[in-house]
Automatic annotation (TrEMBL):
Biased composition (Basic and acidic residues): 57-73
Name used for this protein in its record: LD-carboxypeptidase LdcB, LAS superfamily
Alphabetical GO biological process terms: proteolysis
Annotated region (Disordered), positions in chain: 57-88, 302-400
InterPro entries given in the database record: DD-CPase-like (IPR052179), VanY-like_core_dom (IPR003709), VanY/YodJ_core_dom (IPR058193), Zn_M74/Hedgehog-like (IPR009045)
GO molecular function, one term: carboxypeptidase activity
Residue ranges occupied by any D-alanyl-D-alanine carboxypeptidase-like core domain in the UniProt entry: 134-263
Annotated source species: Anaerocolumna xylanovorans DSM 12503
Length: 400
């Protein structure tokens, strides 16, 4: 009987556990999977905002999609580009992801814009380690390899130096140049952060071994540049800042800076001797040289403190301790011993002369002269008379 009661109690306890515990387990499991899905969704959303923000694309832009709905910039699309015959109806392209976007000293990119398809081109670079400046957008990277291979087939050696540049990196470069080179020099060669073509991933600075891989005017004197300026357009690139377009582009001549725009547009610009500003009929609202100065840095997102040259604390110059100047000792004067005036001995007619030599001093050499000893005899004195007794009476006239 007791065993039966115990068995009934166990059954009731198990029922209570199942009734209370099972819903708790079900609710907990559902909550766990819901939170996991939510975290995954948030992670995808955050990643999409940072790398591929749809706000950077214009859905109606003729440069973003082709007739088949493919994104322009694919190698398959680049090969199918339609020939451009004129720029009569061209519309200014300011879409960051577009291959033909115009970026200059007035048209900027969002500070958080990062191209979604950055890759490292399969070409030689002046550095061997990884750096963001090796990156380019995929279509530009493929075209760059074709360009470099063609140069090599002609016995030329092109080398990549600096391609993609983030907003943060451009900020460092610009502010450092202002501090070290001054504003006037910097605005001729360095872009304001957000206004650099390098941020598009479509531009690259190149050089060659014969120019010591420098990016300066010396590259313009190389065989590589001479070939490049006549052949870059065949691979979709242009010399972005030509020598005769400085007033239009706002930058000094940069033979090393090339920009990928696609074969069709590159061919049109080359054959019509145009830069991108001319193609889009872009006219700046003000003189490029006056667009930025020390008074409006904050309008361009630059902290004025970042371009100030740090002032060095004045170096304390120790006051020299005065050195006591020794009092020169007086040279001892030499008192010449006077010659004894000859006296006439009593009872004799001829006087006896005793000559005492004068002490020798430092003698300045003079022509040798035979001294003549001239003796002036003392007048006759009476016997019993004498001189003063110190040997100094009378005349001592020894002359050289």
């Amino acid at each position: 009987m007791q065993n039966r009661r115990k068995k009934v109690r166990r059954i009731k306890m198990i029922r209570r556990i199942l009734i209370v515990g099972l819903p708790v387990i079900l609710i907990g499991g559902m909550g766990y999977f819901s939170l996991k899905d939510l975290a995954s969704t948030n992670e995808s959303a955050a990643s999409g905002h940072f790398y591929n923000n749809s706000s950077y694309k214009d859905g109606d832009s003729e440069y973003d999609k082709d007739d088949d709905g493919k994104t322009k910039g694919d190698s398959s699309v680049a090969a199918q580009e339609e020939e451009i015959t004129n720029n009569d109806d061209v519309v200014l392209d300011t879409t960051p992801d577009s291959l033909t976007v115009l970026v200059n000293k007035e048209l900027r990119l969002p500070s958080d814009y990062i191209p979604a398809d950055l890759v490292i081109p399969d070409v030689n670079f002046s550095i061997s380690y990884y750096d963001e400046k090796k990156l380019m957008r995929k279509s530009a990277a493929q075209a760059l390899k074709e360009l470099f291979d063609a140069a090599a087939d002609n016995g030329l050696d092109l080398c990549g130096v600096s391609a993609y540049r983030s907003y943060e990196r451009q900020y460092e470069i610009f502010t450092n140049n202002v501090k070290t080179q001054g504003m006037g020099h910097t605005v001729k060669y360095s872009a304001i952060p957000g206004y650099s073509e390098h941020q598009t991933g479509l531009a690259i600075d190149i050089s060659t071994k014969s120019a010591n891989y420098r990016i300066d005017d010396s590259f313009a004197d190389t065989d590589e540049y001479k070939w490049l300026k006549d052949n870059a357009h065949l691979y979709g690139f242009v010399i972005r800042y030509p020598e005769d377009k400085t007033s239009i582009t706002g930058y000094s001549f940069e033979p090393w800076h090339i920009r990928y725009v696609g074969k069709a547009l590159a061919k049109f610009l080359y054959e019509n001797d145009m830069c991108l500003e001319e193609y889009y009929k872009f006219e700046p609202t003000e003189d490029y040289s006056q667009c930025i100065n020390y008074d409006n840095l904050e309008d361009y997102g630059i902290n004025p403190d970042d371009v100030k040259v740090p002032t060095k604390a004045p170096t304390k110059v120790p006051t020299p301790t005065p050195t006591e100047t020794p009092t020169p000792s007086e040279e001892p004067s030499v008192t010449p011993t006077p010659s004894v005036t000859p006296t006439k001995k009593p009872g004799k007619d001829k006087p006896t002369v005793t000559v005492t030599p004068t002490p020798t001093e430092e003698v300045t050499q003079t022509p040798e002269v035979t001294p003549t000893e001239e003796i002036t005899p003392t007048p006759d004195v009476t016997d019993g008379a004498s001189d003063s007794g110190d040997g100094t009476s009378g005349a001592n006239a020894q002359t050289p």
